[in-house]
Amino acid sequence: MPLNPVAYLEYRYQSLVKRFRDTGRSPLPCMALSSSLFIDPFWNVYPCSMFDAKIGNLRENGFDLGAIWNSRRTMEVRKVIEDEKCPHCWTPCEAYQTVLGNLPKALTTRWGVGPAC
Fold first, then answer.
1. Would you state the pLDDT for residue 116?
2. For the chain, is the Cβ count within 10 Å smaller at the N or the C terminus?
3. Nearby residues of 105 by Cβ (< 8 Å), 6 or more positions away
4. Exposure class string for 69-105: b at 16+ Cβ within 10 A, else e
5. How many CB atoms lie under 10 A from the CB of residue 24?
């Protein structure tokens, strides 16, 4: 079990890959649109790089990310994610903040190939 925080995130990410492979579902509740989002090269804003649910465009909104973050559309898509109706992924781009956002569960539950703390 690594003691370095970054090494721990990688360790936990890797230890949950098997569960994702076996179920096709994210092994922890996703934190997309709670702690992160994705901006493409055209300034389109999405919950993550895997979910094609555009929530706005920064250029069209005067580069006001707060307006997009607090919009009705974002709240609707956030609910879809909370209801686990998103595409389900387990990429490092989303998994690291998902592990951090679910830290008590990530620390105390045994999954995949690695032991819990």
1. 38
2. C
3. 28
4. eeeeebeebbeebeeeebebbbeeebbbbbbbbbeee
5. 10
